[in-house]
Design a protein that fits this description.
Blueprint: E1 2-7, H1 10-21, E2 26-28, E3 37-44, E4 47-55, E5 61-64, E6 86-89, H2 94-105, E7 109-113, H3 118-134, E8 139-142, H4 150-158, H5 165-196, H6 211-226, E9 232-242, E10 245-251, H7 259-272, E11 274-287, H8 295-300, H9 309-321, H10 342-348, H11 355-364, H12 392-409, E12 413-424, E13 427-438, E14 463-465, E15 468-475, H13 484-494, H14 506-518, H15 526-541, H16 546-566, H17 568-579, H18 595-598, E16 599-602, E17 609-614, E18 620-624, E19 633-636, E20 640-648, E21 656-662, E22 674-678, H19 682-692, H20 695-705, H21 716-725, E23 750-755, E24 765-769, E25 779-781, H22 813-818, E26 830-834, E27 844-847, E28 856-857, H23 862-865
Parallel strand pairs: 1-4, 1-7, 7-8
Antiparallel strand pairs: 2-3, 3-4, 5-6, 9-10, 9-15, 10-13, 11-12, 11-14, 12-13, 16-17, 17-18, 18-19, 20-21, 21-22, 23-24, 24-25, 26-27, 27-28
Helix pairs in contact: 2-3, 3-5, 5-15, 5-16, 6-13, 9-12, 10-11, 14-17, 20-21
The chain binds one DNA strand of 8 nucleotides through residues 8-10, 33-34, 56-60, 62-63, 65, 70, 72, 77, 80, 92, 114-115, 118-120, 122-123, 171, 174-175, 177-187, 190, 202, 204, 206-211, 499, 501, 628.
Keywords: DNA-binding, Isomerase, Metal-binding, Topoisomerase, Zinc, Zinc-finger
Domain Topo IA-type catalytic: 164-593
Family: Belongs to the type IA topoisomerase family.
DNA sequence: GCAAGGTC
């Protein structure tokens, strides 16, 4: 039996393998650098089995929009709410996936050992899918564990369960929503604000469904601080010296905001100077030991240890995978009854720092203080083995976790609190003292402070003269609930620092929050995100369907989006105000339209809609909306309109051929015509177009056709024939063969002339355009140039780079009549069919046997068309 | 060029 185990990360794989194999696992390299293979023998279902333990590195796949939605300029952002999504293996994970596929093929059982949390379940589902695709007979099982110790791992092994599909689906729903919401709002915000504010050109104004509510929270604090008006207040303190001890009695009234009133009372107190003890009470007081440790609490303690919340979790994660502590992501603060805490306390006995305390706990009996929360998945964070060998920050975090663990198992600290109240001039003052009788858990938990504060002996009803009274003026201070470094750190994190193009202006953050508030769009409200979290739990419980949750959430955010889009001007004004800039431009803003509305064709490479745009220099450009992934585009001469895509050509860039025409009236009539052109890279397209537009042709066309033909109409034939019939072009230029000036199709002089040195066309002469190779890289075989003609005519000379075999240059147009026309690809053309309908009705044409469509009408050169082979 | 969540 061969068993494949997959953990969430290499570290975990290594340690789980070590536990299952008693340290005997062999470590081998696999296709993925970071994900090693650990091989060992162990028992499975009562039999000795071969084990391979390997890992992934978190998620392998990521949701993405299909290529046709990737262009910001031709996808309306709200289309992303409904756009299809694809889940792709990310680039970094290709080898990780390969590793799983390879292993799956030689194993019959898959055990998933990803972390036992939400994301872990989803990662487990990814692992399962990849492995099952490679080997559909795999038996898939899931190991459940909260810690990587011998017992836990073996217990998990003995109690394998199925993967929890519902949890995986909940994560999937979150992923989908995060992407849809993030992408649509990010595009709307970025495009609009870039248009409005010159300082934001090229900047990304990102929006995240988690990030934005946090921004809202920060902005709220920020405002409270900004709007805070300090207020003066006055208070009175009474001091009394007794037995060398100075005791400060504080005013029960605490403070007054009226100086006159406070001063009047102070005067009376100073004048009287006599105090009477009106209340004297001494009662036992205890300081409770802490609750068992949960994640949030651990994060809160980070600062105390000089770490950030992120750092402390990273370290805890490491301590977990190395088996020092239990799983650090838990919302539980109750130790389950089934968990035997004794061995863990015993392990701490060996630690010189708190070994004695651990021993004391064992003697007194383990008595955990329990909270009320449980996530029913993981116990509170606790140490698993002794960790006195650790160093650095790991040691610090481990020590905290161990001390916390021992603290919550020990006993509360005990003491006596004495309260003494005085009356002076009818005002009440009080002081408190503390006498600690048993430090209890504080012995092992120095992170809590509870200090003795002694109070001298006073008697009830006793009267004495106060030493002095102080009149203190003070001011209220801003509600700095978040410290300044916190605030800046948070802002920085929110307005993402990872990209140079990202804005980091606090005023923009405030502006965004204010703008949505102004439109009553509750995006900055945490309730929106917590509503999603609740829905995710419902998916996990089976109370709600994944798709229903996604639909409902998408609809809610779509409403918010619509409202913002409909009120963009107001939205911009609020942000302008916050940023302190008068709006610097009033350029009209238009959101991208649905490409389907404007598309003239589908991109043959990526199937995105292709749209026609006029660029500032007046050129008309047909470009793929799949930009920038797909860069298929090309320029049409003024007014050109693509009317149909015929087929893809076979050039290396995957260019394709279009049939297009000119709008009658929108261009000079001589341009009317129809031809096929490759809309691949710019150069190739330009060549195509130049070949086709010739004034001489046009003039002849017009004479023949008797006036400008109406677009895709009767004028077409002319286009096809222009090469042959062109005899008297006025073009002249250098070069030329045999004295006659030869022009390239782009109307520039063609250069004579090079002889092919090798290949199938060895010894044949050809012309190239004088622009060659920069702009126009068409060329023309010399023996095909019509005497005295403009040279490279409308015939579609093959681009130089095509590698079509030219073994048989084939007969030119005259061969058509012979009925033995050869396609350039060397095959005999099928001859001859007559067009049954359409504008070319009645015309005979040839087809290449390789192609299913019309190659060329019989009156023109077949060969050139075939340079665009299928 | 979009998010957030894993992880190296």
């Amino acid at each position: 039996m061969r068993i494949l185990c997959v953990a969430e990360k290499n570290d975990a794989a290594k340690n789980i393998a070590a536990q299952l194999s008693n340290g005997s696992a062999r470590n081998e390299a696999g296709p993925s650098k970071y994900n090693r293979l650990y091989k060992f023998y162990s028992m499975f279902e009562g039999h000795q089995a071969d084990f391979v333990m390997t890992s992934v590195s978190g998620h392998m796949q990521n949701y993405e929009f299909p290529i046709q939605y990737k262009s910001w300029s031709s996808t309306p952002p709200d289309a992303l709410f409904d756009a299809p999504l694809v889940k792709n293996v990310t680039k970094d994970m290709v080898k990780v996936k390969q590793n799983l596929e390879q292993q799956s093929r030689t194993h019959s059982v898959l055990i998933i050992w990803t972390d036992c949390d939400r994301e872990g379940e989803n990662i487990g589902a990814e692992v399962r899918d990849v492995c099952l695709r490679a080997n559909r007979n795999l038996r898939v099982l899931r190991a459940r564990f909260s810690e990587i110790t011998q017992t836990a791992v073996r217990r998990a092994m003995a109690n394998l369960v199925p993967l929890n599909v519902l949890i995986a689906e909940a994560v999937d729903a979150r992923q989908e929503l995060d992407l849809r919401i993030g992408a649509s709002f990010t595009r709307l915000q970025s495009l609009f604000l870039q248009n409005r504010f010159p300082t934001l050109v090229d900047r990304l104004v990102s929006f995240g469904s988690c990030q934005f509510p946090t921004l809202g929270f920060v902005v709220e604090r920020w405002r409270a601080i900004a709007e805070f008006q300090p207020e003066k207040f006055w208070k009175i303190e009474v001091h009394h010296n007794r037995g060398g001890m100075n005791t400060i009695f504080t005013w029960s009234c605490v403070r007054l905001f009226s100086e006159r009133a406070a001063a009047a009372i102070f005067e009376e107190i100073e004048e009287s100077g006599r105090a009477k003890v009106t209340h004297l009470e001494s009662k036992p007081k205890s300081k409770w030991r802490p609750f068992p440790l949960e994640t949030v609490e651990l994060e809160k303690k980070a600062r105390m240890l000089g770490l950030t919340a992120k750092d402390i979790m990273k370290i805890a994660e490491k301590l977990y995978t190395t088996g020092f502590i239990s799983y650090p992501r838990t919302e539980t603060n109750i130790f389950p009854k089934s968990l035997d805490l004794k061995p863990m306390v015993e392990a701490q006995q060996r630690d010189p720092r708190f070994g004695a305390f651990a021993t004391e706990i064992l003697q007194n009996g383990i008595d955990p203080r329990n909270g009320r929360k449980t996530d029913e998945a993981h116990p509170p964070i606790h140490p698993l083995k002794e960790g006195s060998g650790l160093v650095g920050a790991e040691a610090k975090v481990y020590e905290f976790i161990a001390r916390r663990f021992l603290a919550c198992l020990s006993r509360d600290a005990q003491g006596f609190e004495t309260t003494c109240k005085l009356e002076i001039a009818e005002e009440e003052f009080s002081a408190k003292g503390l006498l600690i009788s048993d430090r209890g858990y504080l012995e092992v938990y120095p992170y809590d402070k509870w200090s003795d504060k002694t109070l001298p002996q006073y008697q009830f009803n006793e009267e004495f003269t106060i030493t002095n009274a102080e009149f203190i003026e003070s001011t209220t201070t801003a509600p700095l609930l978040l410290s300044e470094p916190d605030l800046i750190g948070l802002m920085d994190k929110i307005l993402k620092t990872h990209s140079r193009k990202t804005i980091r202006t606090v005023s923009l953050g405030i502006g965004l929050v204010s703008a949505y508030e102004d439109l009553s769009i509750p995006l900055a409200n945490h309730l929106l995100r917590s509503g999603l979290e609740r829905d995710l739990v419902k998916i996990e419980n089976g109370e709600k369907q994944r798709d229903a949750v996604v639909r409902a959430q998408v609809n809610a955010y779509r409403e918010a989006y619509k409202k913002a889009e409909e009120n963009l001007n107001r939205f911009g004004a609020v942000i302008a105000q916050s940023m302190g800039v008068a709006r610097q431009n009033d350029r009209p803003f238009e959101l991208p339209r649905n490409p389907a509305d404007d598309a003239v064709a589908r991109c043959p490479r990526c199937q995105s809609p292709m749209v026609v745009k006029t660029i500032p220099n007046g050129s008309v450009c047909v470009s793929c909306t799949g930009y920038p992934e797909c860069r298929t585009s090309g320029f049409l001469p003024n007014g050109g309109r693509m009317i149909a895509r015929l087929r893809a050509c076979n050039c290396s860039a995957g260019f394709y051929v279009v049939r297009w025409s000119f709008e009658p009236g929108s261009v000079p009539s001589h341009m009317t015509g129809e031809y096929e052109g490759c809309l691949g890279c710019d150069e190739t397209l330009k060549e195509v177009i130049r070949i086709s537009i010739r004034e001489g042709d046009a003039a002849r066309n017009n004479r023949r056709g008797g006036g400008p033909p109406p677009g895709p109409g009767p004028g077409r034939g002319g286009g096809n024939q222009r090469g042959k019939k062109r005899k008297s072009d006025h073009d002249s230029g250098p070069g030329g063969s045999g004295g006659a000036a030869v022009n390239c199709g782009c109307n520039k002089p063609a250069k004579k002339l090079t002889t092919r040195k090798d290949g199938p066309n060895k010894d044949r002469d050809f012309y190239v355009c004088s622009d060659f190779p920069k702009v126009c890289n068409y060329f023309q075989w010399a023996d095909e140039v019509q005497p005295g003609s403009g040279g490279a005519d409308g015939s579609r000379n093959p681009p130089k780079k095509t590698n079509n075999p030219r073994n048989n240059p084939g007969p030119s147009s005259s061969a058509a009549a012979a009925g033995n026309v050869q396609c350039e690809c060397g095959k005999n053309a099928l001859s001859l069919t007559v067009r049954k309908d359409g504008p070319n009705q009645g015309r005979p044409f040839f087809k290449c046997p390789d192609s299913g469509f019309i190659r060329k009408y019989s009156g023109s050169i077949l060969k050139a068309i075939c340079s665009f082979k299928i």
